[in-house]
Amino acid sequence: MKFLLVEDNAEVARFVRKGLSEAGHTVDHADNGRDGLFLASSEKFDAIILDRMLPGGIDGLGIIEALRRTGNATPILILSALGDVDERIRGLKAGGDDYLTKPFAYGELEARLLALTRRGQGAVAETELAVGDLRLDLLGRKASRAGKPIALKPREYKLLEYLMRHAGQVVTRTMLLESVWDYHFDPQTNVIDVHISNLRQKIDAGFDAPLLHTVRGAGYKLSVEP
Question: What's the pTM value of the predicted model, to 2 decimals?
Answer without folding.
Answer: 0.61
